[in-house]
Amino acid sequence: MSEHADTATGSMPSRASLFIPLAVFLVILALLWRGFSLGDPHALPSALLNQPLPEFALPVLHEPGRVVGSEAMHGEPFLLNVWATWCPTCRAEHAELARIAEEYGVPIFGINYKDNPAEARRWLARYGDPYVFSVVDADGSLGIDLGVYGAPETFLVDAEGVIRYKRIGAVDRRVWDTKLGPLLAELRDAS
Amino acid sequence: MRPDGVLLRSLILGLLLLAGHGQASSIDVYEFDTREQEARFHALNAELRCPKCLNTNLWGSDAPIARDLRRTVATMLREGHSDQEIRNYLVSRYGDFILYNPRFTAKTAALWVGPFVLLFLGLAIIGVMIRNQRRAARAGDEMISPADAERVARLRAELRRDTSGAASRS
């Protein structure tokens, strides 16, 4: 009966509408494809991009009596590296930081993040100290102000103290060559 | 006690221990001035997401950063900040990611509006289908061929005769 009526009124599904389920399927496929190829789900976009460095007043690792703020770092574009002795990836990226400091002459400042200062000093004595200085963030409060959720993280900051890039995880040769290096060159040209 | 009773009991005990585990994972103790502050602390910990662990709230995570954030939330509560101020502070540091209950912004509009759009689309499609079917049914009645119409009339008459015959017999 329904078939009869459909032919009579001409409302039989047209050939084109037979492809609607296929189209829906393709849309879902495209969405899933995009979703699963986003790569690292840990890579949060930094909320602090293009924001000034947060204010802080923390002691310097090698001169515990000296308390500095972010102004002590301003002047030219610099790197701000969050590190700790308990963080194996920091150990892995250490040589690359030393190479960058030496070859590109960019000031690198450290944030010794939730660490034991004595151990941190020993660690630097043993593996080399690429930092102009490191500040001691014993309870991780500067870390929270910076949106840090692990170590290592590395910020590229311009001469005025505005955060221009954030690297979560180790800085290696590839990251330097493709991201940090070119961005630093850009910042240097601009200033 | 029957052996399967023991089994059942230990199973229940195990499940209870498991159920308790999620909330007991943090052993830090926080002191608050008021019960109300403590309740807000618990509510905030439940709705804020641990940035390190992708799918756990602050309460359920043992990650160091989750502990630090719990401490931050507690401190801000004691300093008298409102829930919204605390949320805003954390969003300014960690982005929308930290909220399990995302705000309505241009970026999240699709998230909030999308389901209603889909619901409306579905209802519209169902409506159109029902209307088409009704129209087809009505048209079907009118479009019956003369031969069929004659047959229907004959069958109806036969049916009437049958039922009245049965009624008179009983």
Report on the architecture of this protein.
The complex is a heterodimer of chains A (191) and B (170). Chain A has helices at residues 2-9, 20-36, 88-104, 117-127, 141-145, 173-190, and strands at residues 58-59, 67-68, 78-83, 108-113, 134-137, 153-157, 163-168. In chain A, the strands form 2 sheets. In chain A, strands 5-4-3-6-7 form a 5-stranded mixed beta sheet. Chain A folds into 2 domains: 2-36; 58-190, Glutaredoxin (3-Layer(aba) Sandwich). Chain A has 191 residues and is an alpha/beta fold. The N and C termini of chain A lie far apart (80 Å). Residues 1-10 of chain A have low confidence and may be disordered. With 170 residues, chain B is an all-alpha fold. Chain B is built from 6 helices and no strands. Chain B has helices at residues 3-24, 35-47, 64-78, 83-94, 109-142, 146-169. Chain B is elongated, with a radius of gyration of 34 Å. The interface between A and B is medium-sized, with 27 and 23 residues.
